[in-house]
Write a structure and sequence with these properties.
Helices cover 37% and strands 15% of the residues. With 177 residues, it is α/β, with parallel strands linked by helices. A 4-stranded mixed sheet has the order 2-3-5-7, covered by helices on one side. The protein has a 3-stranded parallel sheet with strand order 1-4-6. It has a domain of 111 residues: Ribosomal Protein L15, Chain: K, domain 2.
């Protein structure tokens, strides 16, 4: 083994500032202009721009009720896209459903014959059997008029929708997911 190396601090023993220059230069955070991001809108402004420090609050959390409806709409759109890509629905039907974030009884009235033609619904005698879960819809709303007897299978339905379908000679079958 060679000779032991002397520690660097030994060199500074006896000196006042241990190689730090003037005694004023190594005092606390003041010598560096504050701790952390202090002065980012004052004396460290250029540094903030170059590094890209973000200032203040960022982002937004959606309310739970909005998140739920957004997820439902997303599910409908993904399901419809999948059906179109598989060739189960044509472009016109895809656009018809895609433009509706929720489905109304009046919409079903308009599209019932087309769905039977595509094989996504059944027609026995004069009654149309539709399952809305195929398209990703969870809820049936009551806007529009119904003249055809519809048998609709869905997770939720409004009272108005159920009433209108029953008046036309159909029924709503509610199921749990």
């Amino acid at each position: 083994m060679g000779p032991r190396k002397k520690k660097k601090v030994k060199k500074y023993r006896g000196s006042r500032t241990c190689g730090g220059g003037s005694h004023k230069k190594r005092r606390g955070a003041g010598s560096r202009g504050g701790r952390g991001r202090a002065g980012s809108h004052k004396h460290h402004y250029i540094k903030m721009i170059k590094i890209g420090w973000e200032f203040g609050k960022h982002g937004f959390t959606r309310p739970k009720c909005v998140r739920k409806s957004y997820r439902a709409l997303r599910l409908v759109k993904l399901t419809l896209r999948k059906l179109r890509d598989e060739g189960k629905i044509d472009e016109a039907t895809y656009r018809f459903f895609y433009s509706r974030p929720e489905i109304n009884v009046g919409d079903l009235e308009l599209i019932a014959d087309k769905l039977v033609e595509l094989g996504l619904a059944e027609k026995t005698n004069s009654k149309y059997k539709l399952d809305l879960s195929i398209f990703g819809y969870r809820k049936l709303l009551g806007r529009g008029t119904v003249n055809k007897a519809l048998e609709v299978r869905v997770a939720e339905a409004t009272e108005t929708a159920i009433e209108k379908i029953k008046k036309a000679g159909g029924e709503v079958i509610l199921f749990e997911e």
